[in-house]
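Preliminary data (for renewal application), iron/sulfur cluster complex.
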Amino acid sequence: MLHKILAKEVLPLVSKPAQYVGNEWNSTHKSQSVALRVALAYPDLYEVGMSHLGFSILYHLLNNLDGVAAERVYAPEADMEKFLREKAIPLFSLESHLPLRKFDIIGFTLPYELVLTNILNMIDLSRLPLLCREREGDIPLIIAGGIGTLNPEPMADFIDVFIMGDGEETLPKLVRYYQKWKIEDKKSGKECLLKGLAKNEGIYVPSLYKVNYSCNGTVDKITPADEGIPSRVKRQAVLDLDRAFFPTSLIVPYLDIVHERVTLEIMRGCPRMCHFCQARAFYQLCRRRDMDTLTEIAVASIKNTGYDEISLSSLSSGDYPYLEELVGNLRKRQELRNVSISLSSLHVDSFSIRLIEELGKKKKTGITFAPETGSERLRRIINKKFAEEDLFRAVRLLAESGWRGLKLYFMIGLPTENDEDLKGIGALAREVLRVSGGKMRLRISLSSFVPKAQTPFERKEMAGIDELREKQRFLQGLLRNRRIKLNWHDTEAAFLEAVLARGDRRTGKVILEAWKKGCRFDGWSEHFKFHLWEEAFSGCGVDPSFYARRVRPQEETLPWNHLRS
Ligand code: SF4
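Predicted structure:
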């Protein structure tokens, strides 16, 4: 029935209908009678979620378990949402088109803060109550994992269980625990399930923790609400990445997605320690895969997908100690002779033109480095290892080898930043153009510093929206040059990100209110409506500056204190 309605009345009328159809190459379809069903939900567009490696790993990992079927769902676009609501069609999975409420578990990925209203929207479109305490009886357990769990507190009212750390480590255990409970103990109810789960490492059940606030509005204490519940939840990590599961049959979509290629995770974590870095804080340990393992994964992945590109991916691929050898090994394999190899992140100190040439980029259009700021003084404060001489050396080599484009990332609003640091950005850009002999064009991207939970800068204050705009204008003047293209991130979106990244449970009601007012896809500038968020904050009596624009003293209890590793 649903198939017919979709085929006749919905799909012909929505944009990119293939994103709702499923049945792509390498997608898994298990029998309807499977013992346990998990819907993996990505709270952003299909084209983004399909490129998320962690989501793919968990999908294939769960489908490799006996008696478990994992299916996918992505956030529907506005036109699809309209049809789902008008025609009273509950949100459904791609594989079996089963309504999400028929699954045992719905597992959201939390890739960043500005997807939170999409999560509420997807729960609501599934015709499930938004609040955990209202979800009782025969309805799915809603769980979430990913980088957003560094501080999951703003979502504590909506998500039953958070997976802390690497999902491969904890999710299969949670699924097995649930399976056993479903067979042997379901009558005991959800509370019993949650209490049992909370005793397992790497599992956080927010409803089993009580938060007390001080009279100045800060968090006073966070304590377990029940005996046997650990006072601190530790993140779990895959220690031996080389032996960890890695999918070699990635799903091949029918429509364009962000990354159309095989993504080969060569390392997890980063050996560098930039003080602002959320990813570094999440992955903590730096682990790497062996070259032989990677080569075999690459060969199998290309064979199973037909892609013609492999990306050697990690937070800091240039720090993989055998990078040139790995590329050499891949190049030697007959099965990969028509495959191009790309690198996701290089550093100027580990840069080598031989490596770039070895990668065989035919289009010498662009390469990216991240000086982050314009002065060595500020780089020391943020702990960014970046020598300008290394950058100039790389630029000379690239220009001589025929490269014509370079992208530089900078962050503005960093702690202690002053005009001299900003002027340094202008000076650095001009020097890059000069040493390239006028051969290169520069693309400069300015993001705003957002203090994140569990990083060394977690107690810092964020610069104000007007101050950030002023810095952007200042740099716009400094970088006016026909060889430089400048773009920057929306300061209001960065401000909201700062509130949600370090919010406590009271910010949950603001997310709910913003969603009710129509906020969706807040990470997309064309959809972001800051005025609705402002109304939501004021309607809920929550001051966003309290979360974003305040230095938090050392003695203040942070909302994520009980979740530190
Ligand atoms: S190098 Fe990149 S990934 Fe590593 S800590 Fe610094 S910002 Fe984070």
